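note to self — DONT lose this again. spent like an hour looking for the file last time. sequence + predicted structure for the chain T wanted, 121 res
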Amino acid sequence: MARQIKEGTGWRLGWDADAPQFQGLVGGEGWAIELTEAEWDDFCRLSVQLADTMQQMSQELMDEERLSCEVESDRLWLEAEGYPHAFSLQLILLTGRRAEGFWPATVVPELIRAAQMLKVF
């Protein structure tokens, strides 16, 4: 099974190992971006890293405090913004085609879980 699509309300992820250039797909409400394998791997790794960082920060914050954390690679930039238990995720591609995406806090936990299961990185 080379081609896989996972989706939920407000998000969509895809992987096609046989695609010549863009094997990954990330999408949200009304938008989608194809990713190279390297971009996909960075997205998966960095989104998990952000989720872990947000969770670790929960011990340092008062309940009503919001925070913003950013991570990036040579290929993409991600930002988590909100509360440790409920944060939005923004993506900006830094490669030649330049694209942006955004997922609201209500879909991020399911999105990150699906990214971890779609392709082992």
